[in-house]
Amino acid sequence: METNATTPAAEAAPPPSVLERSLELSVVIADLEKDIDQRLRRMGKNLKMPGFRPGKVPFNVVKQQYGHEAYIDALNESLEKSFGEAVKAQQMRVAGNPRIEPKKTESTTNLEFTAVFEVYPEISITDLKDVEIERPSLEIGASELENTLNVLRKQRVRYEPVDRAAARGDRVTVDFLGKKDGEPFQGGEAKDHPFVLGEGTMLADFEQAVEGLGAGESKTFELTFPADYQAKELAGQSVSFELTVKQVSAAILPEIDTGFAKSLGIADGDVDKMRAEIESNLKREVKSRLKSRVKNQVMDALLKTNPVEVPKALVEAEIERLMHNARQDMEQRSGKKMKDFPMQREWFADQARRRVSLGLVLSEIVKVNELHAKPEQLKSVVEEAAQSYEHPEEIVRWYYAQPQRLAEIEGVVIEDNVVDWALSSARVVDKAIAFDELMGQRG
């Protein structure tokens, strides 16, 4: 517990919330001085200082050097003990650390303080009987399997130059120069720029101008940038482009054969084995996505039907955690240190508030309805997760080797239990969903 007893507060305190509480704390000066004395004497027994033998430093020297440090440590420990006893006596659930503020007092025997802190909100869970949850369903058949195979083939596409006009699906290599009011503009020029027609990496009007041109052909055309274009100086502006197609290459998809099976990790190239493995993985993925859609609806419904005041301290701590995770993720992606990368707390505020609110609501639901994870549930989830690996038994052992890893699975199981509980009281509407919609594929 930190106190600003010896220094003024650096910033003004935030406005109080309905969860804010305060307690009066008192420290007996005589007891504090006794504690400080004992700390300094213990310190002196092993202290090494130039000019003195170990443990033989005079007490007044020890006090002069370390007296303030001992005072702060003794005061904080006394306040922490006093605060803990006070909140326990009043049966308060404290959220975050208290802010300790010194009080002006004429007492010569006691130091007086005020502890300002937040408590957890009282939550009364509302059932979901008036809420409709849409439960999507999808059966995996031959067409879904072929669709997935085609996606895998497209991921391994190669391109071969062709002597014809460019069409959708072709990869073209172009030179272009853009001009605004007759003058080239920044970012409007490129040499040997490759892109695939129809993938949307270029503006639709640009791609349309390229279609129908063969290698060596040129064209000048007008283009108007969208009003919401990312480069604000070009948004909504009309420009002209000079374009030359350097090469047109057609997409060549791999055949579904032994070589293709081997590229997907099937050592012996057995195509039937490859299809069976893809189908198994696809069913797992579809199951996971269907479950995720339902869970998101349930979580949204729980937050809407159970609005809760969240402790600011918990939100601030969650923002810190999200910022830390974001930096770690950026470092892993870039390979560079991101300690000094500028981040705004506001970027994470909404997400942090939602996560804290949801955590409080879920915690209450789990406690009231006894939805804690059971050992057999943990085992089932771990074994299912391990099935996508070559040696499932090793993955199972890996999870059970560290309590922290198993705790992550426990969180998943508890969320599943909450979803099942919610579905038992909500109005559930089953609805078939298209494969492409579920998998996020368009076009």
Question: What's a concise summary of this model?
Answer:
The chain has 443 residues and is of the alpha+beta class. It is built from 12 helices and 10 strands.
Description:
- Helix 6 packs across helix 11 (403-425), helix 7 (312-334) crosses helix 8 (346-369) and helix 9 (375-386) packs across helix 11 (403-425).
- This protein folds into three domains: 20-119, Alpha-Beta Plaits (2-Layer Sandwich), CATH 3.30.70.1050; 132-140 and 270-439, Trigger factor, domain 2; 158-252, Chitinase A, domain 3, CATH 3.10.50.
- By secondary structure, it is α+β, with helices and mostly antiparallel strands.
- The protein has helices at 29-46, 59-89, 142-155, 204-210, 258-263, 271-305, 312-334, 346-369, 375-386, 392-401, 403-425, 435-439; strands at 20-28, 94-102, 110-119, 132-137, 158-161, 171-180, 183-196, 218-224, 238-252, 427-432.
- The strands form three sheets. Strands 5, 6, 7, 8 and 9 form a five-stranded antiparallel β-sheet that branches.
- The protein has twelve helices and ten strands.
- Mean pLDDT is 91; it is low at 5-12.
